[in-house]
């Protein structure tokens, strides 16, 4: 990649800068995503896009146990050992 290539430009307003639409589309940047900034030794900036995971249970794989469960009777006792 050539260091003199310009993909897009934007202006800074206060402490904020807009990400040009073309860059947002190309990198699939959406509301809630995070940008991680890294200042390089040569004065250039590297930006990493951290995609937001969607949904409350995005990493939840579900119940993989052997026995059947009945949510109406087991909900409040889930994970409680009855002796």
Automatic annotation (TrEMBL):
Pfam families on file: MazE_antitoxin
GO molecular function terms listed in the Swiss-Prot or TrEMBL record: DNA binding
Domain of life from the UniProt record: Archaea
Gene3D superfamilies: 2.10.260.10
Annotated InterPro entries: SpoVT-AbrB_dom, SpoVT-AbrB_sf
Region (Disordered): 64-83
Membrane spanning stretches: none
Span of domain SpoVT-AbrB: 19-47
Composition skew (Basic and acidic residues), residue ranges: 72-83
Xref: SUPFAM superfamilies: AbrB/MazE/MraZ-like
Protein name: SpoVT-AbrB domain-containing protein
Organism whose genome encodes this protein: Halorubrum tebenquichense DSM 14210
């Amino acid at each position: 990649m050539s260091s003199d290539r310009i993909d897009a430009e934007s202006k800074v307003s206060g402490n904020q800068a807009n990400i040009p639409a073309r860059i947002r589309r190309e990198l699939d940047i959406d509301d809630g995503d995070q940008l991680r900034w890294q200042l390089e030794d040569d004065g250039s900036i590297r930006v990493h896009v951290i995609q937001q995971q969607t949904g409350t249970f995005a990493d939840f794989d579900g119940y993989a146990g052997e026995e059947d469960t009945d949510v109406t009777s087991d909900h409040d006792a889930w994970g409680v050992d009855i002796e």
